[in-house]
Design goal:
heterodimer; A: alpha+beta; Glutaredoxin; four-stranded mixed β-sheet; 5 strands; B: alpha+beta; 3 strands
């Protein structure tokens, strides 16, 4: 008898490393995944699977999967326009977003974002905090990267 | 990405979006991504590679000036 399971992204070693980083989690974090079956279906499925595996590594993490075409109001509220997308939400929405499957290099960024959203504590210099507190306009920072 | 995420958490004004360049060739073209990481702030200020915190902040302030 065979039991068919979806291919796992995270091996035991990666799971152990992530669990170690998740020891720093404090408050619950909600991972909101946006998919769309007609657009990038395969990448969206991979993205859901990866985030699901990450969410299983801590009781403080919850996963919600939404559809960009159906859940339009939620997408608009989060400012999500493309899929696959991930919103990392802590005690409030800090504006942490991911477009694309966060594999390779982006994976550690996702884990960092989860820890940041959970603690709400940014490790920035006092001068940086003061300057950011004085911002009079919204700031949209896009960071392009590749998996390797 | 680290600094962008830290700034997003520190300020309600800041949003940090990580974009997987190869999965979004249209965006990569539109923002002329030739090397990664490439950072684009408010579609006005851009740079390639990692910057120290003070210089990253200066780029953010330039983008909102």
């Amino acid at each position: 008898m065979y039991i068919i399971q979806p291919m796992a992204f995270l091996n035991a070693q990666t799971q152990a490393e992530v669990r170690k980083q998740f020891a720093a989690l404090r408050d619950p974090v909600r991972l909101v995944v946006f998919s769309q079956s007609l657009d990038a279906a395969e990448l969206c499925a991979q993205n859901e699977q990866l985030v699901r595996e990450v969410a299983e590594l801590s009781d403080l993490l919850t996963l919600e999967v939404l559809n960009l075409a159906i859940d339009r109001q939620r997408a608009e509220a989060y400012g999500v326009e493309r899929v696959p997308a991930i919103v990392v939400e802590g005690a409030r929405d800090y504006g942490l977003r991911f477009y694309g499957v966060p594999a390779g290099y982006e994976f550690s960024n996702l884990i960092d974002a989860i820890v940041l959203a959970s603690t709400g504590e940014a490790a920035l210099a006092e001068e940086t905090r003061a300057a950011l507190a004085g911002l009079a306009a919204d700031v949209d920072i896009k960071v392009f990267s590749t998996p390797t | 990405m680290r600094l962008a995420q830290q700034m997003a958490v520190a300020s309600d004004r800041v949003r940090a979006t990580a974009i997987e360049a190869t999965e979004f060739p249209d965006l990569s073209r539109a923002y002329r991504v030739m090397a990664v990481p490439k950072v684009v702030i408010n579609d006005r200020v851009e740079f390639e590679g990692a910057l120290p915190e003070a210089e990253f902040l200066a780029a953010v302030l330039r983008a909102t000036a």
